[in-house]
Fold this sequence. Notes:
Elements: H1 8-18, H2 29-38, H3 51-65
Helix pairs in contact: 1-3
Amino acid sequence: MDLKWTDSLEIAIALDEQHSEIDPLTVRFVDLSEWVQALEGFADDPAHCGERILEAIQMAWIEERE
């Protein structure tokens, strides 16, 4: 399955599995963008990402932790 920037919940789950030691509140958006692009199955254009998308991913990651 190919992940797109809009798949915030699926991305959050994958990030939580790969970076379980990281508090999602402390992640800079530059790092978050790089981590998302490095996920297995991620196949979207980096130019399609903006601050709102990264915020949605970060919020989904925080919610996934709770």
